[in-house]
Amino acid sequence: MGKFVENRPVIALDFPAFSDVKNFLEKFGQDEKLYVKVGMELFYAAGPDVVKYIKSLGHDVFLDLKLHDIPNTVKSAMKVIANLGVDLTNVHAAGGVEMMQEALDGLAGTTKLIAVTQLTSTSEAQMQAFQNIQTSLTESVVHYAQKTAEAGLAGVVCSAQEVELIKKATSEDFICLTPGIRPAGAAVGDQKRVMTPSRARQIGSDFIVVGRPITQAENPVSAYHLIKNDWLQK
Ligand SMILES: O=C(O)c1cc(=O)[nH]c(=O)n1[C@@H]1O[C@H](COP(=O)(O)O)[C@@H](O)[C@H]1O
Prior knowledge:
Layout: E1 10-12, H1 18-26, E2 35-38, H2 40-56, E3 60-67, H3 71-82, E4 88-92, H4 97-107, E5 112-116, H5 124-131, H6 137-151, E6 155-157, H7 163-169, E7 175-178, H8 197-203, E8 207-210, H9 212-215, H10 220-232
Parallel strand pairs: 1-2, 1-8, 2-3, 3-4, 4-5, 5-6, 6-7, 7-8
Helix pairs in contact: 3-4, 4-6, 8-10
The structure holds orotidine-5'-monophosphate.
Orotidine-5'-monophosphate is lined by residues 12, 14, 37, 39, 64, 66, 90, 116, 119-120, 157, 179-180, 189, 191, 209-213.
C-alpha cells in the first residue's frame, strides 16, 4: 500500500474579508470539493464563521494560526479550535515539546496537528544571523521535525527541499506539508525556499500549499487545475 498523499493542492485563502472567500469559492463548480487554508489574515477578519461556512460547503480546512505561546495558553486555545471541526491545524515547533504535547491534549484527537519548522520565507543566512542558529538550515528543520515527532504530532510544515531528510529522520508516514510552491516561471514573492508542484511530489511532499499563484491569477480555477495536474504528475 502506498503512503497517503493529498491529491488536492491546499489553497491558501489569504483574503481580508469573508466576501472575498465567497466570491472566490463561487468560481468553482459545486461538486468540486477543495482543501483550503484559513490563515491569520482571514481568521482575524472573519473568525470562526468563515470556517463554519467553508465546512458547510463540504470543503476540507487547514486552520493555519501557527500558535506559539506558553503550553497552558496553547492548550486552552486548542480546546476552542477543537470545536471548529477543522481537519488540520498547526503550532510553531519552536514553542517546545511540552507546548506541542499540550496542544495535542487540547485538541483531544479531533484535528490533525502539525508544527512549523523554519518558515519557507527564511533563508539559511537569515536564520544564522537573526535566530543565531549556527547549523545549516536543513539541520535546524530536521531537528525541529524530530522534536515534533517526539511530541507525538502528525507532521511538520517545511519546504519541499527538506522532505527527503525529514522522512529519513522520522518515518515515511510523518506528514510533510510544503508551502513555498511555485509553478515554473511564477513570481516567488517573499518566499525563499521554493519548488514546483511536480518536483515536490517526486521528492515526497504529502500536501502542497499554494496561495498567490492561484488567488491572484486572472483565472483562479484554471490556475488551480494546472497546478493540480502538475502535482499529480510524477
Ligand atoms: O504554515 C503555513 O501554511 C506556511 C508556513 C511556511 O513556512 N510558509 C508559508 O508560506 N506558509 C503559508 O503558506 C501560504 C503560501 O502562500 P503563497 O506564497 O501565496 O503561495 C501562506 O498563506 C503562508 O502563510
